[in-house]
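Weekly sync notes, structure subgroup
Attendees: PM, AL, DS (notes)

Item 1: joint prediction request from the bench team. They want all two components modeled as one assembly rather than separately. Inputs as received:
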Amino acid sequence: DIQMTQSPSSLSASVRDRVTITCRASQDISRYLNWFQQKPGKAPKLLIYAASSLQSGVPSRFSGSGSGTDFTLTISSLQPEDFATYYCQQSYAIPLTFGQGTKVDI
Amino acid sequence: EVQLVESGGGLVQPGGSLRLSCAASGITFSSYWMSWVRQAPGKGLQWVANVNPDGYDKYYVDSVKGRFTISRDNAKNSLYLQMNNLRVEDTAVYYCARFLEYTSGRYLPFYYYMDVWGKGTTVTVSS
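Output from the run, pasted for the record:
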């Protein structure tokens, strides 16, 4: 199975901060990497697919980059509604696997 | 509006069975792969199973193979997860999601992602 490791596991930030979350795959997954946001008690929401493509309706302050084994999710200017947990997920191979999550709070 | 609504969760004893359902609306259900993903209390996300549009190709995470069966009824726009021999560690919120295949052009690679999710249904396995 492909292991996905996110860092950090949690971070504290302020509104308007630039936030970066990294995700590392245990093997080369090309650009088969997606990012999700999840708020407490809610379903995950797709933010980024194919490593860097912004899902329709997602604000442009979210961006993704990377290929191979190392990936990054960046929030250019954190907004109050962005405090949540973020997950990366690989779709290169079955079983599909997620990172352990990164909680972004104040 | 695309909508997925799960149902069928509840409290069941270890060794018991449950059948989850996911009703789809606002999409041509029969055109898409579908997924089940779960989240144990206070834990991260875990993919459970996928099924292709005609229902014949199915994939599972190892921990549920032989116990869970994913299926669909395209006439009813519905996805199912039959869960047998349930274990305490199957306790989770179960989400259904559309599993999309995407390419930006001819001869370019396909990418795969879960773009629409239901709100989830809670399964508790406890004696």
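Discussion: Chain B has a mean pLDDT of 96.
Action: AL to compare against the crosslinking data before next sync.
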